[in-house]
Amino acid sequence: MTIDNPRHLPKVDDLLRDERMIQASESYGYVPLRQAVRHVLEEARSKLLGKLEGEGDLGLTRESLLEEVLAQLESDSRPGIRKVINATGAILHTNLGRAPLAREALDAVIACSEGYASLEFDIEANRRGQRTSSVENRLRRLFQVEAALVVNNNAAAVMLALSALGRGREVIVSRGELVEIGGKFRVPEIMEESGAILKEVGTTNKTRLDDYEKAIKPETAALLKVHRSNFRLSGFIEEVDEKTLADLAHRHDLPLIYDLGSGCLSEELAALLPAEPTLASATASAADVICFSGDKLLGGPQAGIIIGRAQALAAMASHPLMRAFRCDKMTLVALEATLTLYLDPKRARERIPLLSMALYDSDALYQRTQKAASELVDFGIPARVLESKMILGGGAAPEMELPSWALAVGEGQSVSSLEAALRAMDPPILCRTSQDELLFDLRTLTVEEERLLKFALADLFRQEDLP
Ligand SMILES: *Cc1c(COP(=O)(O)O)cnc(C)c1O
For labeling, which of 176, 219, 342, 410 is most exposed (least CB within 10 Å)? Predict the structure, then answer.
């Protein structure tokens, strides 16, 4: 029976006595249940009151109200940030949380977070310790640099460097490097916020050593070099490499700050990305401050990593912003565990998901995709292997697409509704689409996730019993 008058709505207690509500109370708790019932009745009341003369009935029934309560409890209890299955072929997707963490990093997070940790305690000396000293030691040894610091993200690292070294004075930067990098990291704005005065030199496409040199004055505090990351210049261009720039800075007794962006530590990955500056060349340049992200090509947690000269980093370490930008223990232990894996490049390649995904053997990926396709075909689902591209993403190497293989599914089906149905699953499955196929890159899927994908497809195509 439809309810078309607010006076005929059931009472809160009346709905609460329903068998399904009693069960819902067990799973969701009585307080949220009561709140949801109140809310649903409230909404129904205002809808009925706001109903226009002559408008048809709203289809409200006791049954629809109960269902609405259950739906609301379900959506209220579901976290906003959820696990997703990423089959898009974009390995470092800022919208999807960038780099997945190595098992070792996750284990360290759990071990040090479910109980207590020696975060600021020196166990051997039995006294207060420095929260970042172990990860900084590891960074110093890994990169053979005088000093290291860790903050929340690379944006914070750059801000800290400019504030500590450039406040109230001029920092010289090429016009070709005044870029914006995803999520509103804009070099001129960061510069302004830091209190440093931007001194632009050169032109958009060409900046020469001479341009920097002429701009150096007594009020100059530092030189800044920014990797353009998600933006590429081509044609008639000229820029000054970090080594030459560092030499110039040092001749004038100034520090060079180098915002490297991605920070690729794996030589094997660097070999695939010729346009991406490497950490090796950055450290060889002797730049005083080198900043990069922990969760881009390094494959660790979100962090801003700073390495370089002791004098410049000491000024940053003692700056008040350092306290505002400091990392929590979960980040520090995950980063330390990731860096430890890098001590052995072979281990890093096997254990750090970003590296194993980016360096996935092409033949092995083809075989895996082919096997998945034939399994699907056996169940009557149209599927085949297609040449495709993977992108690194995450502000690293923009047009950097590398060859890959895609599992192409669903020829002739309604691609957009299939895509939406996969996205509505739990966990949601994200893929790319072509004109008439869904495209899945299996390199970013675990074996278990691939199984879930096949089940989901089987379900969508009304098949059952997939192996
Ligand atoms: C990505 C990037 C940043 C911002 O780093 P976050 O870790 O996302 O804060 C800054 N500079 C460059 C050159 C980058 O590529």
Answer: 219
Fill in the amino acid letter for 82.
R
Question: How remote is the C-alpha of 356 from its chain's centroid?
Answer: 17
Ligand 1 mean position, distance from CA 293 (Å): 6
Q: What is the pLDDT of residue 465?
A: 43
Residue 90 confidence (pLDDT) above 80:
yes
pLDDT reported for residue 94? 85
Atom 2, ligand 1: which residue's CA is nearest?
261
Q: In what helix (H) or strand (E) does residue 58 lie, and over which residues does it extend?
A: none
CB-based contacts of 252: which residues, under 8 Å, 6+ apart? 216, 220
Distance from the alpha carbon of residue 261 to the mean position of ligand 1, in angstroms: 5
**What's the gap in Å between 182 CA and the centre of ligand 1?**
8
Ligand 1 site residues (CB inside 6 A) read 153-155, 158, 181, 185, 226-227, 229, 259, 261-262, 293, 304, 395
State pLDDT tens for residues 262-313: 889 999 999 988 888 889 889 999 999 999 999 999 999 999 999 999 999 9
Residue 225 pairs in a beta bridge with 258
- Dist CA 307 CA 290 (whole Å): 5
**CA 267, CA 285: separation in Å to the nearest integer?**
17
160 C-alpha to ligand 1 centroid (Å)? 13
Closest CA to 245 of 297, 177, 316: 177
- DSSP SS3 for 221: strand
Q: Is residue 210 classed as helix, strand or coil in its secondary structure?
A: helix
Q: Is the pLDDT of residue 463 over 80?
A: no
Q: In this structure, which residue's CA is closest to atom 13 in ligand 1? A: 261
Nearest CA to ligand 1 atom 7: 154
Give the count of beta carbons closer than 10 Å to the beta carbon of residue 353: 17
- Protein residue with least CA distance to atom 6, ligand 1: 154
Residues 417/461, Cβ–Cβ less than 8 Å: no
What's the burial of 277, exposed, middle or buried (CB within 10 Å: 0-12/13-18/19+)?
buried
One-letter identity of residue 346: K
Q: Which atom of ligand 1 is nearest to the CA of 396?
A: 15
pTM over 0.85: yes
Whether omega for the bond prior to residue 427 falls within 30 degrees of 0, making it cis, is: yes
Q: Is the dihedral angle over the CA atoms 103, 104, 105, 106 positive or is it negative?
A: positive
Report the nearest-CA residue for atom 14 of ligand 1.
261
Q: What is the DSSP annotation of 136-159?
A: HHHHHHHHT-SEEEEES-HHHHHH
